[in-house]
Amino acid sequence: GDTCEPFGTFPRGEVTGIAVTVGLFFLVVPGLVLAFLFAYAAPVVMLENKGGVAALKRSLSLVIANLVPTFVMLLVMVLLAIVASVLVWLVIPQGWGFAHTLVQALLSVVIFPLPVIGLVLVYRNARQPNAPPMLAQPLAVQP
Questions:
Q1: For 14-47, what is each residue's pLDDT tens digit?
Q2: β-pair partners for 11
Q3: Residue 73 CB coordination number (10 Å)
Q4: Which residues pair with 38 in a beta bridge?
Q5: Count of H helices and E strands in the chain?
Q6: Phi/psi at 75 (nearest 5 deg)?
């Protein structure tokens, strides 16, 4: 019948389900945790001129000191991507091939900078909690 030799009569579906669950737990979950803890690594590298392990350590300390704002920003990033995908799926049928792909790509180009800007603003607040809002500062115009 439908059995897996090393497991005797244990059905293959359960073996597959267990293997997938274990794989998700040991690979995906730690990956998501590390992505969260190192969320500020890129801004630290660019704005604080730190590299490698120093940037990761700095990101870790900033995230730990600002757990809620960092989590909310990353959650907003994920939700924004999901909403964008759902909107494209609802507006343009997948059967339209090129039009569906083109609209999804254009929407990605428009939406992609928003989470990056948000992450940098949250990073700036994490780095300097008492600084005035970045968007409230006037732009310096060079003559």
A1: 777 787 788 777 888 888 888 889 888 888 888 8
A2: 3
A3: 20
A4: none
A5: 7, 0
A6: -65, -40
Dist. CA 119–CA 123, nearest whole Å = 6
| Number of other residues whose CB lies within 10 A of the CB of residue 40 | 26
Question: Residue 44's Cα: distance from chain center in Å?
Answer: 17
pTM > 0.70: yes or no: no
Amino acid at 132: P
- The CB-side HSE value for 121 (13 A sphere, CA atoms) comes to 16
Determine the 3-state secondary structure of 3 from DSSP.
strand
- DSSP-assigned states of every residue in 18-87: HHHHHHIIIIIHHHHHHHHHTTTHHHHHHHH---HHHHHHHHHHHHHHTHHHHHHHHHHHHHHHHHHHHH
Q: Render pLDDT for 122-141 as a digit per residue (tens, 0 to 9).
A: 888 888 766 665 555 554 54
Closest CA to 133 of 116, 114, 120: 120
